[in-house]
Design a protein that fits this description.
By secondary structure, the chain is an alpha/beta fold. It is built from 23 helices and 12 strands. The protein has helices at about 1-5, 10-15, 20-40, 45-60, 80-95, 100-110, 120-140, 145-160, 160-170, 215-220, 225-230, 250-255, 285-290, 310-315, 325, 345-360, 385-390, 395-415, 440-445, 475-480, 505, 510-515, 520-530, and strands at about 190-195, 200-205, 235-240, 295-300, 320, 365-370, 425-430, 450-455, 460-470, 485, 490, 495. Strands 5-4-6-2-7-8-3-9 form an 8-stranded mixed sheet, with helices on both faces. Helix 7 packs antiparallel against helix 8 and helix 11 packs parallel to helix 18. The longest helix is centred in the first third of the chain and has 24 residues, at about 120-140.
Length: about 550
């Protein structure tokens, strides 16, 4: 069949013409650049490519009727095209591209990064980018019309790249007329009333497991075990994601400090130096509890060197910081790890051991833990789930979400049996909304919100629907533990158990994100600890 097709005149013409190879490849790359950010079906990629080739045939691109001599020129568009390729790769990897996250990770460090599964994708993107640039150079050199057009194209590519748009937005903070709108609403977290019997705190961050999965029509029963936990908890609905809170370290800082994570760069001379501290200018949950004589432990399966996690917890009152480097030697099977670190069943076993030791002390304790089971893009389901769920196909994120729910529920049952939940507040929460996963199209089909559940013997199960952000978790936890703060506020957050409106209820998420792009005073507070009079203006 292939031999027969190769004999057809049209096919022979196309195969032996470098013009069509170049134009066809450019068309496919253009199609990919369209469908990836817009999350369109792959069929649209071929439709875009076909449309591009049709235009090429109609206007005789690469073979004009009155050709000029080929010129050995280098297109102005090469750099803008490379930046676009970087953006498309980031969009394919993470879904939503956050320039703040890029800045922060470059500065905080990426040692211990576990994204090895994306290595092949990165190679494919790199090769595709290279060959598309070669094809575009050929087109510009052989078609004088494109030599004129591509200069305008270079400006268009720079102006429309969302990555560069994010950079220019952050740069706008340098000249904004009011760069202290958020900072004026910051309330220093100060305890005004303490509980007679301080409770313990167990805060479990569920990597990327947003409450959006609680929809049987779209996600079957993947969230079922979390719903079972919720039946005995106070469940909060409507916890949205503010900009600069959408990755793990940012989500932790938002929920423990009541502030978005604005990177240290752009406003500082040392913006390209490695960080020695993480948000040293604000008091966070660990600082408050440490001052109340809590014994505090952070534990997570991934490296604490990645993204400054170890620095943050060391700076903010934690006594023990346990990550992959400290926990991996404890494993019975040293090979039972994934590219990021420990599987969740191993982590929960070690958490139980640590909690037993903490509970032997007369002082109240606090533990913050971070799971890995549903980490994008595919998750890392533990082997202990396979007997219950069958084999993992390597891609289905719903399998990983279900596994994480079952392991978390089993872990809480074990804590109950050990008596470790007496006078203990348990917080079950997502660190941030999920990045791009196999269920991405379904996740982004409606409004999304984070998981947040509070469990304690003293709490009556309930469902509370309030528009809020993860900034409001900080004062909510303090108030639930019996620590009263000024006006039920801490940082930029307002307790979800109190009547005062939070920032989202008062101003809306869109407006807050707009003000965040202009803010520089709060950024200075985070990184320099600048002392200033704190005023709250409505």
């Amino acid at each position: 069949m292939l031999h027969f097709l190769s004999k057809l005149p049209l096919v022979k013409h196309v195969v032996h013409q470098p013009r069509w190879w170049a134009l066809g490849f450019i068309g496919l790359c253009l199609g990919n650049a369209v469908i990836t950010p817009l999350t369109l079906p792959i069929g649209w990629m071929f439709a875009v490519a076909l449309g591009w080739v049709a235009l090429a045939w109609l206007f005789r691109w690469g073979n004009p009727r009155h050709p000029h001599s080929p010129k050995r020129v280098w297109p102005w568009s090469l750099v803008p095209l490379i930046i676009w390729w970087f953006y498309v790769y980031m969009a394919d990897t993470y879904g939503d591209v956050d320039i703040a996250a890029i800045f922060f990770h470059l500065q905080a460090g990426m040692e211990g990064h576990g994204g090895g599964k994306r290595f092949l994708t990165a190679i494919v993107y790199t090769l595709s980018a290279f060959f598309s640039l070669v094809a575009f150079v050929w087109l510009v050199r052989h078609d004088h019309r494109w030599r004129l057009l591509e200069r305008i194209l270079a400006l268009f590519l720079l102006a429309t790249n969302p990555l560069l748009f994010g950079i220019t937005q952050r740069s706008a903070t340098m000249v904004t007329q009011d760069g202290a709108w958020l900072d004026r609403r910051y309330i220093e977290p100060k305890i005004t009333e303490e509980p007679a019997d301080p409770p313990n705190l167990l805060y479990i961050y569920l990597e990327s497991i947003e409450r959006t999965y609680d929809d049987n029509e779209r996600f079957d029963d993947a969230y079922e075990d979390f719903n079972a936990i919720g039946e005995e908890s106070v469940v909060f609905e409507g916890v949205r994601q503010l900009d600069n809170t959408g990755w793990t370290m940012a989500g932790m800082i938002a929920s423990q400090c009541g502030v978005p994570l604005m990177p240290a760069g752009l406003l500082h001379d040392e913006q390209f130096e490695p960080l020695d501290h993480v948000v040293p200018g604000v008091n966070c949950l660990g600082d408050i509890l440490s001052a109340q004589d809590y014994q505090l432990t952070y534990i997570g399966g991934a490296s604490t060197d990645f993204a400054g996690k170890g620095l943050f917890y060391n700076d903010h009152g934690f006594d023990r910081i346990l990550g992959r480097e400290e926990l991996e030697p404890r494993l019975d099977d040293p090979d039972y790890v994934n590219s990021w670190g420990l599987y969740d069943d191993s982590l929960y076993d070690m958490m139980l051991e640590e909690l037993k030791m903490l509970d032997e002390s007369d002082d109240p304790w606090g533990m913050v833990a971070l799971t890995l089971g549903a980490h994008a893009p595919f998750g890392f389901p533990a082997d202990s789930c396979k007997e219950r769920q069958g084999e993992f196909d390597g891609e289905d994120i719903l399998y990983s979400v279900e596994c994480s729910g079952w392991l978390t529920r089993q872990f809480l049952d074990r804590l109950e049996d050990e008596g470790l939940l007496d006078n203990t507040l348990v917080v079950i929460a997502s660190d941030h909304l999920s990045m791009k996963v196999s269920a991405w199209d379904k996740l982004v089909a409606s409004e999304r919100d984070n998981t947040l559940m509070l469990y304690s013997d003293d709490l009556e199960p309930a469902r509370i629907r309030r528009e809020s952000t993860t900034l409001d978790i900080f004062p909510t936890i303090l108030e639930t533990m019996g620590y009263q703060t000024e006006s039920h506020r801490a940082g930029l957050g307002v307790s979800l158990l109190a009547e005062p409106q939070n920032l989202v209820e008062r101003h809306g998420l869109t407006y807050l994100n707009e003000r965040l792009t202009e803010e520089n005073a709060l950024q200075e507070r985070l990184w320099e600890g600048v002392d200033r009079e704190v005023r709250f203006k409505e």
